[in-house]
């Protein structure tokens, strides 16, 4: 995340790219270990110091890919290298980065809990309260919110999975884990006889 | 997957065999990590360039085996090496390869979700719609279909598990993960009170 | 498993011991990976060529132990080395080895499914039929049977977990995986509304 | 855990610190493997020979951290190194160490089962009986008890997860696994139709 000054050398830029790609690869393996990126689902991105975005290519398996599965796009979502084709979800990542300059990383995954709850629930939002895990979201009581304009830390698309972001990949992944934990709790609660 | 031309050397053929066996061993470990090949269940195959098939032997544990657990059969299912005995399911793999020359790999596993849903469900097919994961199946709305003639990407045998295929092992495994994800979602949905 | 003849050297005996201890350690790690040996639960044994038994010590964690956690007992369950204290379950293993000379390995684990089903179910046995996984049990339709005299491959003690055996550790573990798969299926089936 | 005598050298103290930090890091990875420390949840501590406490810092991920994520506090919970800030839960650990000089390690995690059961259950305590796993708790029939004064091995805070302790980390982790196993069983039992 350094190399922003005018004296940044080509080596530094390459290092920053490699670091971003490594973060994305590690995040994919972690998400795969939890079963959140089945098949070629999910996508993961990091904002680079120059405002461009490192993001997973379309059609890759996020748990099995290497750094070659990461491509670079401009802030508007076009591929930096002519001829490369970004995934359709790339624009959702770009929209988030454009909305908030504090966002440094975005992760999108599909869990069974998120999918089942979003397909079942007629309500526009899932509410959580009283869970200590909410600390991970810093006081936000309603964390799963399909209306992007009211949403600060993540959202869930019906039948599609969750998008979560943060200033860096560590925070984005921690929020994803916190959110998926709450969704797993909610799914279990739904199964209990009342 | 190269070495198809007349100049292919013995070394190339051995390399192709080793690559196929490695793909099968890796696939078995991955399926085992998800719990889809309990005991000695499951079988995994790859079509070689000459039309023969590399397939797991009977009685092996798909998560613990090495490449010696992979044997070669002719397109009609007989062992290439006289005296070796293929598993009973080998003919199901051969049937799929014979039906469609575009199939390069077939995977068969047993998951709890597939077993429970296929044992419970009186209907001849499970239908899925509205799930983004269906993208992994390229628009096929009904993916689990016990009537082979109507089925393009996979099928499920009552009490037995799923068969999924693709042009290569990566695609076959990705489709298996997508299908198992949908089956896991369906099983969770069934448990929710209505 | 060799070294049974009169010419067996001390080196061979030590090798056989090390092989048995390694099999037990590997089995424990595998069972731990599935969550079947929580805390210090479970025990694992192998019959040696001379009829003595290598078995896990009391109080060890089966997923974290090394070969030093394996001790030797006589066929009647007394420690071969004076002063060592076998676990209480050692006699259950010895009873099985005494009943059938073909038994070479015994594994005992605690799964959530086995515990919940055995605590809930008023019936003396769980019956399974129609599951392809039963192949792993070679045609035995009723595999979970608390009456030892009628039981050929494994039994389940109420609130306690399962004991499974076989001619060797590979077979015992494969049967354990098959049985736990069926128990997991049964537990899921019980949760579905009728 | 040695180095308590007056002849203990600086080297021995550093070794004891490193050993404590390694135990904490290993415990965190194990808990993460089971999904019990999502996001930055959980905390883990070991009492040092001089009465000070090695404990995880605030905001770290317990499954991804290294030994640098472990800090030292005085028995009253203040940081040994001026300027370092302990987590809010540090005082809960100190309270336990102060109550019982036999406690050597404390682990706190959040599981789905603990969270769901503690949020749902109107009763002040969960009771368990008839489970062989209770052996891990040495005869204690009621192990999950929100009233600390009556509790000898662990407690559960509504919506918050469990605290478990023992004379050493091995015992504390084994008790945690035993307790989580029982909670997992209870959650499954609740889902079965009556």
Short description:
Helix content of chain A is 34%, strand content 14%. The first copy, chain A, has 194 residues and is α+β, with helices and mostly antiparallel strands. In chain A, strand 5 and strand 6 form a beta hairpin.
Q: Explain this structure to me?
A:
4 copies of one chain form a homotetramer. With 194 residues, chain A is α+β, with helices and mostly antiparallel strands. Chain A is built from 4 helices and 6 strands; from the N terminus they run αβββαβαββα. Chain A has a 6-stranded antiparallel sheet with strand order 3-2-1-4-6-5, sandwiched between helices. In chain A, strand 1 (43-47) and strand 2 (53-56) form a beta hairpin. In chain A, helix 3 packs across helix 4. The first copy, chain A, is elongated and about 60 Å long. Chains in contact: A-B, A-D, B-C, C-D. Chains A and B meet through helix 3 and helix 4 of A and helix 4 of B.
Portion of residues within helices of chain A: 25-40%
* Overall pLDDT of chain A: 83
SS elements, strand count of chain A: 6
Helix and strand succession of chain A?
HEEEHEHEEH
Strand content of chain A: 5-15%
Radius of gyration of chain A: 17 Å
Instruction: Going across the biggest sheet of chain A, name each strand in turn.
Output: 3-2-1-4-6-5
Q: What's the shape of chain A? A: elongated
Helical element count of chain A? 4
Briefly note the structural class of the backbone of chain A: alpha+beta
Biggest interface, chains and residues, is: A-B, 23 and 20 residues
Assembly type: homotetramer
- Provide the low-confidence segments of chain A as ranges: 1-8, 137-151
